Amino acid sequence: MGSFRVLRFRLILDTDDYILNAFLFPFFTLVSRKDRSVVVNFTGRNSLDFLAVNRVWRVIWALIH
Fold it and tell me: pLDDT averaged over consecutive 10-residue blocks of the chain (65 residues)?
């Protein structure tokens, strides 16, 4: 697992509970950054999109350590 590198992570979440969504909104805003987007919405849309890459030398390095 340590050999993988996550280049992009996007989570769009709707819990179907307006109060829970309102509580999650500030937390998701704090943990989001340029390469990691975590968003709560109130429209019923849920999606997860991520891009992870791995290189042979990273796998070898992870097995050595």
Answer: 85 94 93 91 93 88 81
